[in-house]
Amino acid sequence: MADPLTNRYSRQLLLPQLGKAGQQKLKSARVLIVGLGGLGCPAAQYLAAAGVGHLGLVDPDVVQVSNLHRQILYGEGDIGQTKVDVAKQRLLHLNPHATIATQAEKFTTDRSAFLAQACDLVLDCTDNFAARDAINAYCVQAKKPSVFASLYRFEGMLTVFDTTTGAGCYRCLYSESSEAIQNCAEAGVIGMLPGIMGAMQALEAIKIITGAGEVLNRQTLVYDGLNQTARKFIREKKADCSVCG
């Protein structure tokens, strides 16, 4: 009889960039996902489905009806429940072989240390500058890569921050003056866009874990959903950055 886990991951085991060695790396990997909203839901689903062995989930919020058009882990029956608890239940139903730890609080270096210190990389799926700054400061200090995405109406942005390679950090890309940019609650977002960008975050994470392909470090991808176009630009490190300079 075939190994049931081999059957589960058979389609990606066929990929020469992954194979059995890559699958074992995924099984051993520890990924922290901060934010279980529009980006975090699809990212968590795809990482769990791909066989990432250990997931940490951080989000202080409860499910609201306004979440349901884009946050696909939740349904009407989940309204009022904490997102991390619902997400953990759904992800274990998808892949019971995963180990999942949760924290129903805001990410801070102190409160989230027990999850963050155990992780190999962080997915920043948050939607506010305070959370992003906290994640960035932690990852720079701890020398861990982070996969970042953001959303604005029909447009998404994706990049990887890994300062151990000499590349810049989140603050090199976003100055303090950028904090006036509206988030999804203020500017709106089409429901499919978080799914696209969250899946891309999961793919970048898998590439980091397995060594497959070229990671978007030093580069930023901008996706335009209205016109179905994408472009990339080089992201420069700022010598005078207050965090990584």
Automatic annotation (TrEMBL):
THIF-type NAD/FAD binding fold domain span: 9-242
Catalytic activity: [molybdopterin-synthase sulfur-carrier protein]-C-terminal Gly-Gly + ATP + H(+) = [molybdopterin-synthase sulfur-carrier protein]-C-terminal Gly-Gly-AMP + diphosphate
Gene3D superfamilies recorded: NAD(P)-binding Rossmann-like Domain
Species lineage: Bacteria, Pseudomonadati, Spirochaetota, Spirochaetia, Leptospirales
Keywords, ordered alphabetically: ATP-binding, Nucleotide-binding, Transferase
Enzyme class: transferase
Organism superkingdom: Bacteria
InterPro entries given in the database record: ThiF/MoeB/HesA (IPR045886), ThiF_NAD_FAD-bd (IPR000594), Ubiquitin-activating_enz (IPR035985)
Claim: Nucleotide-binding is one of the keywords in the record: yes
Subunit note: Homodimer. Forms a stable heterotetrameric complex of 2 MoeB and 2 MoaD during adenylation of MoaD.
Role according to the record: Catalyzes the adenylation by ATP of the carboxyl group of the C-terminal glycine of sulfur carrier protein MoaD.
Known EC number: 2.7.7.80
GO MF term set: ATP binding; molybdopterin-synthase adenylyltransferase activity; sulfotransferase activity; thiosulfate-cyanide sulfurtransferase activity; ubiquitin-like modifier activating enzyme activity
Family: Belongs to the HesA/MoeB/ThiF family.
One cellular component term from this protein's GO annotations in UniProt: cytosol
Full protein name: Molybdopterin-synthase adenylyltransferase
Entries under Pfam families matching the protein: ThiF
Source organism of the structure: Turneriella parva (strain ATCC BAA-1111 / DSM 21527 / NCTC 11395 / H) (Leptospira parva)
NCBIfam families according to UniProt: PRK05690.1 (NF004281)
